[in-house]
Automatic annotation (TrEMBL):
Residues 1-24 form the signal peptide. One of its GO terms (biological process) is secondary metabolic process. Belongs to the peptidase S10 family. It comes from Nyssa sinensis. One of its GO terms (cellular component) is extracellular region. Its EC number is 3.4.16.-. It comes from the Eukaryota. Keywords: Carboxypeptidase, Disulfide bond, Glycoprotein, Hydrolase, Protease, Secreted, Signal, Zymogen. It is found in: Secreted. Coiled coil: none annotated. It holds the Pfam family Peptidase_S10. This is Carboxypeptidase. One of its GO terms (molecular function) is acyltransferase activity, transferring groups other than amino-acyl groups. The keyword Hydrolase applies.
């Protein structure tokens, strides 16, 4: 074969492309081993800090799991846990990360890590981001940065993404999605809006945003606040008589009652559901004594916060109720959003038992392995922190969803249908209220040949989906079903 100048240039370009593909990821970020895991990683893992404000030394921590399937073609997904104030390692450890964590045999022993057959890295590259600064391993050299809110968090996260893709340019052409749950119902659309503004303005690098996902997400004060009463009635938790009385007295306004009669009827609703695990009404409760003492005097909280959920899964769902959403009929309103530790004047979120994550992520060898700063610099890792003061300053998310979907960005709003804290009834109502034409009428969707929930598709690529029998954190309760709908939605296949 005769080589001409054009052929030679093509060969050189290909060699350079391959070199970039292999070597562009920062080698100092590569994770080579993890304490507690003895096997071979199914894909490459990277982690480290991205500085989003040089003058303040504001640094956001990420853990990046490369897809186990086809990294160069599979989408890149940013995952955000909520709170506000909760670390996205919550998703990594307990939900859809590459490992299942088994508690150490004796107290003080490190957890043992096993490969997770339902990891979302089976079909996607996934970035777990601790946000805002002050949460998880993220921190700032200027403590004024711990006073923050929705708009600043979105701006910082956008800066993080621009710098992250500069560090990992080989993923810039991949389809990009933003996903999260609970208070990330605020984080996700506000960040997506910032990304789109940047794309419109020609900010480089150009992100290839295709859409976003929100699970059991806080969205709108009115819709979220009015969701509990119809949920409780539909689930058979309150009587027809009480439901009719509440409707008559409150006129559909349950979150902001305007009369004493309405208040008294709502108090009866609260009394009827008080003993339930509000994050999954199907889960039994373990009655803990320590949390009961902490909660004494906090009459604004339901008594069920003295209890810890249990399950019979082989690797159990945490025995906890966690600080990712708010007490009954208390939607997130404009202004300061107290973290659970601040709300309770204690060190922990209500009934939280994150011993596995806490013991692993505060281990010195683990922090070194994942390139997290030592405790003297970044502080101890907490699942949900009170280090930040957070202001909800973005208002209702419905206007964000309208803007993004009208621009053609795909949106999946999914909901575990037995979560009583951010009930599916609110998410179903607000997605319907947007007014888009129904293009896929309400129907069951299946996983492994079984009905796994229900779906309704709207014009402008807006989809609402329920997961049957799941609580607040869907991939934690229903990992197989979660991977099923996640995989299909990312691939634009029918769910």
């Amino acid at each position: 074969m005769a080589w001409n100048n054009h052929s030679f240039q093509i060969l050189i370009s290909y060699i350079i492309f391959c070199f970039v593909l292999i070597h562009s990821a920062p080698q100092g970020a590569l994770i080579t081993q993890l304490p507690g895991f003895n096997g071979t990683f199914p894909s490459k893992h990277y982690s480290g800090y991205v500085t989003v404000d040089e003058s303040h030394g504001k640094k956001l921590f990420y853990y990046f799991v490369v897809s186990e399937r086809n990294p160069s073609e599979d989408p890149v997904v940013l995952w955000l846990n909520g709170g506000p104030g909760c670390s996205s390692f919550d998703g990594f450890v307990y939900e859809h990360g590459p490992f299942n964590f088994e508690a150490g045999k004796t107290y003080g022993n490190l957890p043992q890590l096993h490969l997770n057959p339902y990891s979302w890295s089976k079909v996607s590259n996934i970035i777990y981001l601790d946000s805002p600064a002050g949460v998880g391993f993220s921190y700032s050299g200027n403590e004024s940065d711990y006073i923050t809110g929705d708009l600043m968090t979105a701006s910082d996260s956008h800066t993080f993404l621009l710098k992250w893709f500069e560090l990992y340019p080989e993923f810039l052409s991949n389809s990009f999605f933003i996903a999260g749950e609970s208070y990330a119902g605020i984080y996700v659309p506000t960040l997506a809006y910032e990304v789109v503004k940047g794309m419109d303005a020609g900010v480089k690098p150009t992100l290839n945003l295709k859409g976003y996902m929100v699970g059991n997400g806080v969205t709108d004060e009115e819709f979220d606040g009015n969701a509990l009463v119809p949920f409780a009635h539909g689930m058979g938790l309150i009587s027809d008589d009480l439901f009719e009385e509440v409707m008559a007295e409150c006129q559909g306004n349950y979150y902001n009652p305007t009369s004493n009669n309405c208040e008294s009827k709502l108090a009866k609703v609260d009394e009827d559901i008080n003993g339930l695990n509000i994050y999954d009404i199907l889960e039994p409760c373990y009655h803990g004594t320590e949390m009961g003492e902490i909660l004494t005097g906090n009459m604004m909280l339901p008594s069920s916060f003295r209890k810890l959920g249990q399950t019979e899964r082989a690797l159990p769902v945490r025995k906890r109720m966690f600080g990712r959403a708010w007490p009954l009929r208390a939607p997130v309103r404009d202004g300061i959003v107290p973290t659970w530790p601040q709300l309770l004047k204690s060190d922990t979120a209500p009934c939280i038992d994150d011993e596995v994550a806490t013991s692993w992520l505060n281990n010195e060898a683990v922090r070194k392995a994942i390139h997290a700063e030592q405790e003297s610099v970044a502080g101890s890792w907490e699942s949900c922190t009170d280090r930040i003061s957070y202001n909800h300053d973005a208002g209702s998310m419905i206007k964000y969803h309208l803007n993004l979907t009208s621009r053609g960005f795909r949106a999946l709003i999914f909901s575990g249908d037995h979560d009583m804290c951010v009930p599916y009834t609110g998410s179903e109502a607000w997605t319907r209220s947007v007014g888009c034409e129904i293009v896929d009428e309400w129907r069951p969707w299946t996983s492994s040949g079984q009905v796994a929930g229900y779906i309704q598709g709207y014009a402008n690529n807006l989809t609402f989906l329920t997961i049957k029998g799941s609580g607040h954190t869907v991939p934690e309760y229903k990992p197989r079903e979660a991977l099923d709908f996640y995989s299909r939605w990312l691939a634009e296949k029918t769910i």
